């Protein structure tokens, strides 16, 4: 057990907001193949739907009448990783990552593209200066492929390529001014 304070078993659910629940149900069930597991009508006139991601974990969506419009570059990235700026505002959710088998990237990329989904290149996150490469290197620790859902929510298929080690914590966190809070020797 890695958490000595609370017995957490992973993500119960992540709740996002969509513009069109019918379009969201179509994408998450017909494109990503998730099962629609629960639907709720809210007393305020909204909806809250849950999709089974597997492993006892769910992704949920709210639909609210009159909700503010999508705000790329504020509440979500404006581009796919490897293709442009992925910065988002403080307090925003940058992306949702789904764990997939490491050997399925090419197959899943082809499936998504056959369904009309634009995907980024498969990225191999590593210890290079850029932080990723198109090829697997000796320092690759994770593979990823990114794409957007119909509401512009950035989604990722990801797989760890090795166990994480204590030596993987090498960088000091910075404060709001970019100043390190401690040195790597203090980590």
**What radius of gyration results from the CA coordinates?**
18 Å
Order of helices and strands: EHEEEEHEEEE
Strand order of the largest sheet: 5-9-8-6-7
Full CATH superfamily name of the largest domain: 2,3-Dihydroxybiphenyl 1,2-Dioxygenase, domain 1
Q: What is the tally of helical segments?
A: 2
Gross morphology: globular
Largest sheet: 5 strands, mixed
| Strand portion | 25-35%
The beta-strand count equals 9
Average predicted local confidence, pLDDT: 88
Structural class determined from secondary elements: alpha+beta
Description of the structure:
By secondary structure, this protein is an alpha+beta fold. The protein folds into two domains: 1-66, Roll (2,3-Dihydroxybiphenyl 1,2-Dioxygenase, domain 1), CATH 3.10.180; 80-165, 2,3-Dihydroxybiphenyl 1,2-Dioxygenase, domain 1 (Roll). Helix content is 11%, strand content 27%. It is built from two helices and nine strands, in the order βαββββαββββ. It has helices at 21-31, 105-114; strands spanning 13-18, 35-41, 47-54, 57-63, 96-99, 123-125, 132-133, 142-148, 154-160. The strands form two sheets. It has a five-stranded mixed beta sheet, with no helix packed on it. Strand 3 and strand 4 form a beta hairpin. It is globular. The protein starts with 12 loop residues before the first strand and ends in a 27-residue tail after the last strand. 16% of the residues are buried. The model has no long low-confidence stretch (mean pLDDT 88).
